[in-house]
Each structure stands twice: as structure tokens, then as C-alpha cells.
């Protein structure tokens, strides 16, 4: 399993041709207390950078983007009932959705954990 | 967005930074939007204990005339509230109106307690409106009433069910004040002016302090474990749950006090006489009703509807109004909103839809405040 990161502060864990996607610890700390999560529909075909999910804190709504082309295969229903999980365990239990990769070559342009850490430090 | 260097700082700026606040530009000031506790916990802490708010960005000013009747009469030419009848040591909420009877700003007015201060009224106005307000007020005053803008004082608020007991440790006479009363106090030997009021729906005080002593007062209050520093984020969610208007959003230069559903600020004498800017129009609205009204809105689901969200009647496509303030209410544990709808759809319980990201969310017109106000009324 390989883990990748995006400039939009999402992480992806890739197993075979399925990626599990969530937001990073840095993203949750910037958002503050999450009160609502809207998940994409299963079976939806998405392009890289499409807005596919929404995460709302007390302050504001933010979009979660598709990190790659592909098909949404599952949303994490836990977040619908317990949106605060996003603050508690953003890089674990609070994953947002799983997607079947449409173009695995796009993975190459994403960041490694070390690259992402360096990127966050520039912000 | 203004550069940080152009932003004004309140006398508590250094303390906010020291406490780890996230600072943002607001109305030309560098203000704390949240502290390390975060908006949700700050909100809940205020409702169960006490929160300290820096509201020094707001405008403080005095109207100074020869006697109360003269000063009150001068202010009454701009506002639809009784000012002549305001008793010493009392505070009142009112609005500045333009010639259409629409709201230029909302403000608090207090009459000092001491007889030697007769003829003085203290005003607290919104930060973003203050320059314009002062211009309008100054231009309307007669020769013998002056506007004195206060630049050298901070304003802090302590709000919440434990605010009074903490305040009493430093200024025992604060305990004797009832809701909407104002008076000078000695706070640990520092001369301050306090009112028992605020913008959260909770009991508490707003305290005007000489700028140089503001940090000492704030630190004395924060030293108590019952008090935490609270940012503008929670201030907004607290006032929204309390059903209180945010100027420039829920009321503005296109809404009258009748449309804004704040006619409680107008007393009988003024409502009969209509002797204020736009009086004719406002009186007509009082008699015949208005096309639109500000209402509270509760959503069925968990998704918040924020400012600008369209309001529709279920099963139709027409936009009948918009949300003017909306978000998550931490105490209610649900999204809350307010907005304008046609008056025939303003009845409590009316089913509506709020459009969020293209999706129609079911909502109902609801009673405000969403969370019961807990102001302190003195026993008779």
C-alpha cells in the first residue's frame, strides 16, 4: 500500500486499483470543529479536481476535491453521523470516500509524505 | 484583504497573540477569530461558564449637551426609540435611520447614573459603521449638543452564567445591576463604565476601560478558571443562536425596523408620532405590514445553510428570499439561520426550502431566539 498527498491537503492510500481518500491532519486543524460532511454518490464518475465532497466547520464550508480521475465506490457513512471524527482521526477512521482509479499514471504527480510535510512548512 | 500592517490594533492585541489567537482582519482591525480552544468549545464554554470578548473595535462616543432633555431630543431626531424617558443608569438598544426609515446602524445608548453627568449619553456603535455614524450624528446635532468620539478606551465583554459571580470578585457593585443598566464601577481600583448587557443571549457585562488598563482588567478576569478568552467566531454563533441581528447582514440600509422584526426598539410615543427619519413609511408599515419580514429558520438535516442561500416554497422554483445569517448552532446541536421571506410566509411552522449547493433542504420558520436568553432581571 502506498500513501500520497495533494496540495489540497488530501491523502490517498492506494491498494490495487482503489484509493481511500481523506483530509490531512493539517487540513482538519485549519478547518476547526467539523459539524457536517457531505459525501459523493456511489458510482459517480469524477475527474481530477472535481468538487466531490463538502466539509463544514462552525465557521465555513470547504470543498474536498477528487485527487484523481475515477469512480466513487464508497462513502464513509460514519462521518454523516459523527462529523467530529474528522477532527479526531482525519488520517484514519475519518476517511471520506474510496475511488476506483481511472488513470493510475496521475499518481506520479502527487506528493510523498516527506514532500507534503515540506510543502506544509512553506505555508 | 488589507495588509496586516494597515490594520488597527486594539489595546488587547498583544494579549491575544500571547494567548495563541488566530488573528484575522475585521472592520479594519486585526482581531482574534478564535483561540486555541476553537470556535465550538469557546461557544459552549461561554454558555456554561463565562467568555471574555474583546470588542474594542466598536465605536464608543459621548453625546454631550446642557441637560438630558436637550441631548435626548437631539438623538431622537435620528432614532425611533424613546430617549427622553431613559432614566439615569439605564441602557437602550436603538437604530439610526435614514430618510427611507432604513437602518444605518444599530447601537446601544446609556445614560450615566450620576447627576453631574446629566446631559451626557454614551453610544456604542458597530466598528464597520462608526465613521459614517459619527458623520451623520454630528451633522444632525444642534449647536449646544456635541459628539465626543472616544479613542482612548477599550471595550470588553464578559458573558455567560458565571460572568456575574466572577465580576463581583473585582467590582462588588456590579452584582446590583440589572439587565440593561449601566454605571461606573471600580474594578480592582480601576475606574470603568459597565453595562449589564451583551451580544450572546447570556447574562454578562460590557466594560469600557481606559486603554492602558484594559490588559490588567482582562488578565484579572482570565486568571479565573471560570473565564476563557473567546474569539469573533464564537461571538457570531452565540449571537445567531440568541436571534440577535448582525448589522450589514440581517439588517442594513435596505431594511426598516419593521421588516427587520426589531420593533421592540420603538416605544409607543415614537410609534404614534413617527417623528424620526422615514417616520411616515415606518408608520405605514406598522399599520399595514410589510412585503418581507426577517424570520428564524430551522433546518431538518445537519447541513448548515449560510448567508446568501436561496429560500423557496417546497415544490416551486421561485426564489422568495435569502438567508442573511446561517451556520451551525453548537448549543442547539443543529444548523440555524435567519433570513427574509414574504410576510404571508413568515408564520412560525411554515415549511420552506433552503437551497445549498443546488440541493433543496427542508426548513421551517421558527421562533427566535433559538436558545433561550438568560438575562438577569432584578427582583422587584
UniProtKB/TrEMBL annotation, chain A:
InterPro entries found in the cross-reference section: 2-oxoA_DH_lipoyl-BS, Biotin_lipoyl, GCV_H, GCV_H/Fam206, GCV_H_sub, Single_hybrid_motif
CDD domains recorded: GCS_H
Keyword check for 4Fe-4S: no
Domain Lipoyl-binding: 18-100
Keyword Acyltransferase: no
Family to which the UniProt record says this protein belongs: Belongs to the GcvH family.
Protein's job: The glycine cleavage system catalyzes the degradation of glycine. The H protein shuttles the methylamine group of glycine from the P protein to the T protein.
Name of the protein: Glycine cleavage system H protein
TrEMBL record, chain B:
The enzyme's E.C. designation: 2.1.2.10
One Pfam family this sequence matches: GCV_T
SUPFAM superfamilies documented for this protein: Aminomethyltransferase beta-barrel domain, Folate-binding domain
Family under the similarity heading: Belongs to the GcvT family.
PANTHER family: AMINOMETHYLTRANSFERASE, AMINOMETHYLTRANSFERASE, MITOCHONDRIAL
Chain ranges of the GCVT N-terminal domain: 12-268
Keywords: Aminotransferase, Transferase
Record field: catalytic activity: N(6)-[(R)-S(8)-aminomethyldihydrolipoyl]-L-lysyl-[protein] + (6S)-5,6,7,8-tetrahydrofolate = N(6)-[(R)-dihydrolipoyl]-L-lysyl-[protein] + (6R)-5,10-methylene-5,6,7,8-tetrahydrofolate + NH4(+)
InterPro entries: GcvT, GcvT/YgfZ/DmdA, GcvT/YgfZ_C, GcvT_C, GCVT_N, TrmE/GcvT-like
Protein's name in the database: aminomethyltransferase
Lineage: Bacteria, Pseudomonadati, Pseudomonadota, Alphaproteobacteria, Hyphomicrobiales
Species assigned in the record: Pseudovibrio ascidiaceicola
Domain Aminomethyltransferase C-terminal: 294-371
Amino acid at each position: 500500500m502506498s500513501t500520497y498527498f495533494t496540495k489540497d491537503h488530501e491523502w490517498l492510500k492506494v491498494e490495487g486499483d482503489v484509493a481511500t481518500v481523506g483530509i490531512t491532519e493539517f487540513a482538519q486543524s485549519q478547518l476547526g470543529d467539523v459539524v457536517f460532511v457531505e459525501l459523493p454518490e456511489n458510482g459517480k464518475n469524477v475527474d481530477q479536481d472535481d468538487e466531490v465532497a463538502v466539509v463544514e466547520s462552525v465557521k465555513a464550508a470547504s470543498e474536498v476535491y477528487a485527487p484523481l480521475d475515477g469512480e466513487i465506490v464508497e462513502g464513509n457513512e460514519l462521518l454523516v453521523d459523527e462529523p467530529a471524527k474528522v477532527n479526531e482521526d482525519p488520517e484514519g477512521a475519518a476517511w471520506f470516500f474510496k475511488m476506483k482509479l481511472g488513470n493510475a499514471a496521475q499518481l506520479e504527480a502527487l506528493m510523498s509524505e516527506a514532500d507534503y510535510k515540506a510543502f506544509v512548512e512553506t505555508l | 484583504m488589507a495588509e496586516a500592517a494597515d490594520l488597527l490594533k486594539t489595546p488587547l492585541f498583544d494579549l491575544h497573540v500571547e494567548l495563541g489567537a488566530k488573528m484575522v482582519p475585521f472592520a479594519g482591525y486585526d482581531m482574534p477569530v478564535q483561540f486555541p480552544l476553537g470556535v465550538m468549545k469557546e461557544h459552549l464554554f461561554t454558555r456554561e461558564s463565562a467568555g471574555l470578548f474583546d470588542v474594542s473595535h466598536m465605536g464608543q462616543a459621548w453625546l454631550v449637551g446642557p441637560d438630558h432633555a436637550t441631548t435626548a431630543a437631539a438623538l431622537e431626531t435620528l432614532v425611533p426609540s424613546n430617549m427622553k424617558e431613559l432614566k439615569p443608569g439605564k441602557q437602550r438598544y436603538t437604530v439610526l435611520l435614514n430618510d427611507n426609515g432604513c437602518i444605518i446602524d444599530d447601537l446601544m445608548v446609556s445614560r450615566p447614573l450620576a447627576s453631574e453627568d446629566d446631559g451626557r449619553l454614551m453610544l456604542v456603535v458597530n466598528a464597520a459603521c462608526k465613521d459614517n455614524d459619527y458623520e451623520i450624528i454630528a451633522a444632525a446635532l444642534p449647536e449646544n449638543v456635541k459628539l465626543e468620539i472616544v479613542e482612548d478606551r477599550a471595550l470588553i465583554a464578559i458573558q455567560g452564567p458565571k460572568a456575574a459571580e466572577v465580576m463581583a470578585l473585582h467590582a462588588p457593585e456590579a452584582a446590583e445591576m440589572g439587565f440593561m443598566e449601566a454605571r461606573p464601577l471600580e474594578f480592582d481600583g480601576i475606574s470603568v463604565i459597565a453595562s449589564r448587557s451583551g451580544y450572546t443571549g447570556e447574562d454578562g457585562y460590557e466594560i469600557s476601560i481606559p486603554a492602558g488598563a484594559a490588559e490588567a482588567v482582562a488578565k484579572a478576569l482570565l486568571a479565573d478558571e471560570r473565564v476563557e478568552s473567546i474569539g469573533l467566531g464564537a461571538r457570531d454563533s452565540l449571537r445567531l443562536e440568541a436571534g440577535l441581528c448582525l448589522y450589514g447582514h440581517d439588517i442594513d440600509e435596505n431594511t426598516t425596523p419593521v421588516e427587520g422584526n426589531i420593533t421592540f426598539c420603538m416605544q409607543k410615543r415614537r410609534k404614534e408620532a413617527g417623528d424620526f427619519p422615514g417616520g411616515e413609511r415606518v408608520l405605514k408599515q406598522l399599520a399595514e405590514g410589510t412585503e418581507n419580514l426577517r424570520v428564524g429558520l430551522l433546518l431538518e438535516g445537519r447541513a448548515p445553510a449560510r448567508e446568501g442561500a436561496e429560500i423557496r416554497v417546497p415544490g416551486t422554483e421561485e426564489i422568495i428570499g435569502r438567508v442573511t445569517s446561517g451556520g451551525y448552532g453548537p448549543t442547539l446541536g443543529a444548523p440555524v439561520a435567519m433570513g427574509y421571506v414574504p410576510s404571508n410566509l413568515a408564520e412560525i411552522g411554515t415549511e420552506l426550502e433552503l437551497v445549498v449547493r443546488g440541493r433543496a433542504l427542508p426548513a421551517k420558520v421558527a421562533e427566535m431566539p433559538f436558545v433561550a436568553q438568560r438575562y438577569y432581571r432584578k427582583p422587584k
